[in-house]
């Protein structure tokens, strides 16, 4: 393994909310902890403080979000200067426009270039496909799921040996039942004005946007044979105010006032998971990976997700949760009814299976270790002869009965 301390430059449009940004901060922390130097170039954002706390150095390039070809070339020159001055070993591109600049800069300087393919981009137009293809030009291409890897190989010309699946992960130092302070849970419940005699709480985290499927969940809740539940929709509703208003009207029209509430964004997701009995991720379109099912399982919560995209790799049907047909209100209502009707023994088994699955297969620590391994392989010129995949070969024990069954 390459032993020399590395200088790695990650490039992305900005440092705001999202999986790309969170992954950047997590890899920054892993690099710093391993004795390497972590640089990040972006237009900035409120995660800059998190990046600094993780041990990273932020280099503000205000135009990194731009798709203008001339600005992309200007950014390439800026990045090339940074690479030379900071003696960068590897440039890691996480988004398309910055990736075009980063690849040009890497070629100019002889720096190593890798990419992470975070999503399934629109490929309807040839020009769009060519624009997206920059994410396949890395010496190694990291796909965040097998679903994404399959998409890459089906739609782009790329050597399969260069495409490595590294699933995203849950931060077990944050998303773990024993890391949550009970007093803070009570505070969150009070801020959200939750009923004192709380019914089973159904939690749906996610931005308020149509493809996330909030309307499908509301319609499914209305089909349940009882109203012995309370549902929270947790997520940013500022970008799609019309859809948020539509959801509020739907809640009223279906007579679900007092049973469904939209509470906006929150910094207290672990506490929200603790309050919940069940977590739902009913995305109509496939998630490239989807952190919600993993975070929920890391908190020991049963999950209902849709049968496509990354959820097919993270949710084990009838072991850690349920998979339902995307957009199918009746199928989601069936799964909700089954989940809410579980007896205590069945719930205990599913909760411990969920913990086991997240801790063994989908931790941030594992994601970071595998990414740093890719960095070292690139430095050593190692290209796998066969595709490198994160294949889950170990089955969840069929009859977990208590905490002693879960390895820390």
Tally of distinct domains: 2
Rg over alpha carbons:
22 Å
- Looking at the overall shape, the CATH architecture of the largest domain is 3-Layer(aba) Sandwich
Describe the main β-sheet briefly. Answer: 7 strands, parallel
Give a count of the beta strands, DSSP E runs of length 2 or more: 13
CATH class group of the largest domain: Alpha Beta
In helices, the fraction of residues equals 40-55%
Main structural class: alpha/beta
- Shape assignment: elongated
Order of helices and strands: EHEHEHEHEHEHEHEHEHEHEHEHEHHH
In order across it, which strands form the biggest sheet? 3-2-1-4-5-6-7
Which superfamily, in CATH terms, is the homologous superfamily of the largest domain? Glycogen Phosphorylase B
Query: How large is the count of helical segments?
Result: 15
Beta percentage is 5-15%
Low-pLDDT stretches are 389-408
Distance between the termini: 28 Å
């Amino acid at each position: 393994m390459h032993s020399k301390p590395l200088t790695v430059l990650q490039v992305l449009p900005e440092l705001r909310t999202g999986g790309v940004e969170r992954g950047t901060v997590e890899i920054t922390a892993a690099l710093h902890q391993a004795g390497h130097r972590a640089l990040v170039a972006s237009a900035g954002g409120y995660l800059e403080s998190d990046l600094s706390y993780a041990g990273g150095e932020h280099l503000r390039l205000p135009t990194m979000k731009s798709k203008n070809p001339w600005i992309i070339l200007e950014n390439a020159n800026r990045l090339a200067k940074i690479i030379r001055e900071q003696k960068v070993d590897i440039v890691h591109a996480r988004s398309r426009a910055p990736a075009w600049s980063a690849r040009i800069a890497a070629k100019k300087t002889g720096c190593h270039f890798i990419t992470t393919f975070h999503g399934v981009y629109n490929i309807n137009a040839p020009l769009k496909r060519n624009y997206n293809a920059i994410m396949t030009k890395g010496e190694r291409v990291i796909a965040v799921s097998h679903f994404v890897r399959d998409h890459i190989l089906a739609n782009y010309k790329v050597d399969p040996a260069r495409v490595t699946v590294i699933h995203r992960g849950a931060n077990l130092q944050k998303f773990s039942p024993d890391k949550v302070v009970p007093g803070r849970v009570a505070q969150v419940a009070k801020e959200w004005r939750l009923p004192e005699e709380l019914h089973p709480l159904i939690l749906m985290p996610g931005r308020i946007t149509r493809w996330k499927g909030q309307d499908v969940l509301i319609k499914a809740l209305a089909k349940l044979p009882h109203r012995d539940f309370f549902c929270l929709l947790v997520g940013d509703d500022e970008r799609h105010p019309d859809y948020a208003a539509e959801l509020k009207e739907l809640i009223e029209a279906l007579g679900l006032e007092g049973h469904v509430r939209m509470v906006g964004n929150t910094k207290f997701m672990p506490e929200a998971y603790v309050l919940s009995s069940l977590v739902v991720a009913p995305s109509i379109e496939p998630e490239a990976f989807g952190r919600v099912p993993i975070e929920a399982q890391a908190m020991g919560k049963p999950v209902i997700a849709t049968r496509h995209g990354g959820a097919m790799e993270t949710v084990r049907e009838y072991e850690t949760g349920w998979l339902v047909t995307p957009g199918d209100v009746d199928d989601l209502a069936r799964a909700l009814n089954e989940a809410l009707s579980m007896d205590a023994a069945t719930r205990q088994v599913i909760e411990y299976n969920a913990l086991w699955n997240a801790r063994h297969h989908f931790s941030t620590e594992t994601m970071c270790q595998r990414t740093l391994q890719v960095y070292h392989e690139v430095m050593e010129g190692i290209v796998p002869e066969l595709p490198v995949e994160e294949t889950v070969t170990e089955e969840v024990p069929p009859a977990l009965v208590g905490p002693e069954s879960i390895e820390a």
